[in-house]
Amino acid sequence: MTPELLARELEASRARSLALLEPLDEHDLVRQVSPLMSPLVWDLAHIGNYEELWLLREVAGVEPLRPEIDRLYDAFEHPRAERPSLPILGPADTRAYLSGVRSHVLDVLDRVAFDRPLTRDGFVFGMVVQHEHMHDETILATLQLRGGPRTLPPDAPLPAGRVIPPHDDVLVPGGESVQGTTTDPWALDNERPAHRIHLPSFRIDRVPVTNEMYAGFVSAAGYDDRRFWSERGWEHLQSSGRRAPMTWQGDGAGWWTGTRFGETLPLERDVPVEHVCFYEAEAYARWAGRRLPTEAEWEKACGWDPLAERLRRYPWGDADPTPSHANLGQRASRPAPVGAYPAGASAYGVEQLVGDVWEWTSSGFDPYPGTRAFPYREYSEVFYGGDFRVLRGGSWATHPTAVRTTFRNWDLPVRRQIFSGFRTAADVPA
C-alpha cells in the first residue's frame, strides 16, 4: 500500500462521485426525492466531512477545517427525513469544501506513518475509499427514485447469458469451514475475526432468482396468499399495498419495468430480479418450496475452497475482479443476464455471487465471536441485533474495492430502494 496507490484510489472514488452529480442542476442536488434518502448535496458534503475526520484530524492531526458543520453531517445526529431542513452547504460550497479537504490529504499523504493499527496496510485510507463508493451507490439509488431524464452515461455492453433452469442448484457438502477474515487489510470490523464454523449439507441456487421466475410468483397471486408471508411480512404487505417489485408496472399483457434511470423498458426476463425487500424474497422462497440461505451458507458457497481448505477473497480466487468475472463498478446500470459469468463461479460452481444484485440472506446482523468495534462503534456495533437483515455480494453499482467474499451489508427488511435481489437454498435430507 504505497502513497501513490492510495492517492489513485482516493482520486478514482472522487471522480466517480463528481461524475454522478455533474449533470444535475442545483434544484436536483438540494431537493429530497424521498424521505428514505438524503438530498444529494448532503451525501457529497458528508463524504468530504468523513474524509476530513479520519484522514486529516485522526491520522495527520490537522486542525478542523470546518468544525461548525460536523453535526450537520453526522448521520446519527439527523435522520434522513430531517436533512433537507438543516442549514447544509450549497452545491458550490460543498464542492469547494471537498476540494480543500482533498488538497490537504494529498499534502500529508507522503508523511503518514503506516505503523499503527489505524494506518497499517493503508486501512484507514481504504475505509475512506470504501465509504465514498458506498455513498456513490446510495446516490445511484437516489437517482433511480428521482425519475426524470437519464443522467448516467450509456451502459457498457454486458456479456450474453445462457439458459439455466429455474432453481438449478448445487450441493454444498457439510463440514467445517471458515467465516470472516483476520488477514484482509481493508476488511471492516464486522467482517472480523475469522472463525471456524460447521454447517450441515445444503443446496443453493446456481444463479439468482430472475424476473421470469419472480413473475411466476406474482402471476400465481403470491402477494395475496397469506401462507407464504411471515407475520411481520404480511403486516407490511397490507400497509404498503405492494403487489410487485418496486420498478415493475403491468400493462394488461404482462409486466414491464418502471422507470430505470429515466427509461421505461420491457422487463428482461433472464436477469436477476431487483428492488425487492426481504419480506418479498422470503415469501417467494416459501412459494417455491425453498428458503433463503443463511449468511454463513452464502459465504461458504461463495468463498470456501474445499481443496485448499481456506476462504478465497472472491468466488473465483484472490485475483481482482475483471469484466469477465462479475458485473461490478457501474459498467452498466442494470444486472446482467444469468449465466453471463461462468469465469466468476465459486469452487462449488455457484455463479454471480458478486455483482448484479445484493442478495438477501435469512440472517440478522449480529457480531462474530470476538468482534470488536474498530475504529468507531457507529459503523457496525450500533446496528447489531434488532430487525436488520444481512445482504451479501454487492450489486452492479458496487465498486470492486467495496465488496469481497466476507463483506457484510445490512438493511431493514422493508427496504427495496437498494439494488437488492436474492437466491434460494434448500436443506439436504439426513
What can you tell me about this protein's structure?
With 430 residues, this protein is of the alpha+beta class. The chain has 2 domains: 3-146, Four Helix Bundle (Hemerythrin (Met), subunit A), CATH 1.20.120; 160-430, paralog of FGE (formylglycine-generating enzyme). It starts with a helix and ends with a strand. It is built from 9 helices and 14 strands. A hairpin with a 4-residue loop joins strand 5 and strand 6. Helix 1 (3-21) runs parallel beside helix 5, helix 3 packs parallel to helix 4 and helix 3 packs antiparallel against helix 5 (123-146). It has helices spanning 3-21, 26-30, 40-59, 91-109, 123-146, 211-219, 231-240, 278-287, 295-303, and strands spanning 169-172, 175-179, 195-199, 202-205, 248-250, 255-260, 263-266, 304-305, 310-311, 358-364, 389-392, 409-411, 420-421, 425-427. The chain has a 4-stranded mixed β-sheet with strand order 12-11-10-13. Helix content is 29%, strand content 13%.
